Amino acid sequence: MTMTTTTEMTLNPETTVGELVVEQPNRSRLFEELRIDYCCGGRKPLRQVCEEKGLALEDVLARLEQLPTESQQSSHSTVAELTLGALIDHIVDEHHAYLRRELPRLDGMIRKVARVHGEKDHRLVTLPVVFAALIAELGDHLAKEERILFPAIRRLESGDPEDTCFASVGQPIQVMLAEHDSAGHTVEEMRRLTEGFNPPTWACNTYRAMLDGLRELEADLHQHIHEENNILFPRALEREQTV
Ligand SMILES: [Fe+2]
Ligand SMILES: [Fe+2]
After folding, report:
1. 168 is in which domain, residue-wise?
2. Nearest ligand, CA of residue 91?
3. pLDDT per residue over 222-232, tens digit each?
4. What would the mean pLDDT of 41-50 be, rounded to a whole number?
């Protein structure tokens, strides 16, 4: 049995959707279900997002308020409580490692499904092309974060800013934000090509496993981008102001 208790707190519809997930991470599940973008589009207030998507604000607020709060869950500390260095370790160990493991595995399945079923649904032939572009852009992106931006943020935290090739971490952060938008659009395109990652009745097991993997990849990427766009980057910029 799942216990849900209405919180006494009143949610402010002017709070951004990104901030709502920073405050309480399990809100991301409801946002995923409602197709509310809380990572790349996380800087928009909830009221505006509901208007744009044609969702009833009162209904969304009521569902948010029914979610168990952190203190009602048996959960451990959230990523928002980590230091900058620990948050970077978490992002690299969890999300970057996940991508390095999953992208090649999914690539193999996507190519196989295109080969076997491409005649039946031509969108399956487009999928490996779109996925190859995602692999290329993410490979490059992860390397830039790990070699340039993340070490610079670690130096900021240790109060030891060395000479870097940029005047402010704001410069590489702007590049990373644009790349997140681009990766988000590519995943959106894959969702469109696969009818929302839903298998047709005739789909074989590999096809179903591929869609399952892609759905999981989308959710992990949203969480990953959320942790960077809405937690790590704003905090690094704040930190830079104090050194
Ligand atoms: Fe990352
Ligand atoms: Fe990133």
Report:
1. 79-242
2. 1
3. 999 999 999 99
4. 94
- Same domain? For 197 and 86 the reply is yes
Give the model confidence (pLDDT) of 171-221 as tens digits: 999 999 999 999 999 999 999 999 999 999 999 999 999 999 999 999 999
Distances (CA, A) of 191 to 88, 173, 176, 195: 28, 27, 22, 6
Where is the domain boundary, 6, 39, 72? Answer: 72
In a domain, 117, yes or no: yes
- Look at residues 144, 143, 132, 229 and name the one whose alpha carbon lies nearest to residue 189: 132
> Do 225 and 173 fall into the same domain?
yes
- Cα(176) to centroid of ligand 2, in Å? 6
Distance from the CA of 107 to the center of ligand 2, in angstroms?
20
CA of 219 to the centre of ligand 2 (A): 14
Of 49, 72, 95, the residue that ends a domain is 72
Task: In whole angstroms, give the CA distance from residue 197 to residue 22.
Answer: 27
Q: State the burial class of residue 202 (Cβ atoms within 10 Å of its Cβ: 0-12, 13-18, 19+).
A: exposed
Question: Across all residues in the chain, what is the average pLDDT?
Answer: 90
**CA 60 to ligand 1 centroid distance, Å:** 29
Residue 164: pLDDT band with limits 50, 70, 90 = low
